């Protein structure tokens, strides 16, 4: 791991602003958000639907570009990089878990988990992916395609995919939003276990107070501002 990822905060949001054009003119989704996350921390982002949580997460991960302000990951300004630079950084350092799982439907569970490793040219992609799927309790589902897996199983595959390349930073956007309460709880438990084992930094969007309470720190977004 480069020195910079150890000696700088994992994430710095600096006056992060997002404006979009809409039918009535300009819509300000985020109004100058500032916060810092230290390496190894767990942060919950909570707020009402439409408050700007997913937009914020997308900016932190460099999936979207800000209108003003910036994001530093491990001390590096990700918006001073070009798209390719950000894509490379995502591939090397970031993991994602989404509400809708976002598995590739034409790949089986094993292939979905192998993909991030193969993109990095890892020669041990298959054995690492198999071990990771075993870790999330899916050793007997390697060849299943997503449509033959339950929601909870699909999210376990997504967790395996997110963690298999051991990214220092994990982003999760309402990862239990599509699951029933009991399944959601088991997925969250697993996500925190993996996060602890790997000593990664976790940023979790949720509207569930009991899930937010599992994080070391919570920030609340209301109408695009830190509350
Ligand atoms: N590209 C876009 N164009 C116009 N409006 C958008 C765009 N992206 C998000 N919004 C609006 O910005 C607000 C915040 O969206 P989002 O970040 O998805 O909120 P949350 O995740 O908190 O529910 C919502 O009102 C949404 O409709
Ligand atoms: Mg959202």
Structure description:
- With 227 residues, the chain is an alpha/beta fold.
- 35% of the residues lie in helices and 27% in strands.
- The strands form two sheets. It has a six-stranded mixed β-sheet with strand order 6-7-8-3-9-10, sandwiched between helices. It has a four-stranded antiparallel β-sheet with strand order 2-1-4-5, with helices on one face.
- The longest helix has 18 residues.
- The radius of gyration is 17 Å and the shape is globular.
- It binds adenosine-5'-diphosphate and magnesium ion.
- Adenosine-5'-diphosphate binds next to β1, β2 and α2.
- It holds the Pfam family ABC_tran.
- Keywords: Antibiotic resistance, ATP-binding, Cell membrane, Membrane, Nucleotide-binding, Transmembrane, Transmembrane helix, Transport.
- It comes from Oxalicibacterium faecigallinarum.
- This is ABC transporter ATP-binding protein.
Using brief descriptors, characterize the structure shown.
227 residues, alpha/beta, 4-stranded antiparallel β-sheet, 35% helix, 27% strand, binds adenosine-5'-diphosphate, binds magnesium ion, ABC transporter ATP-binding protein
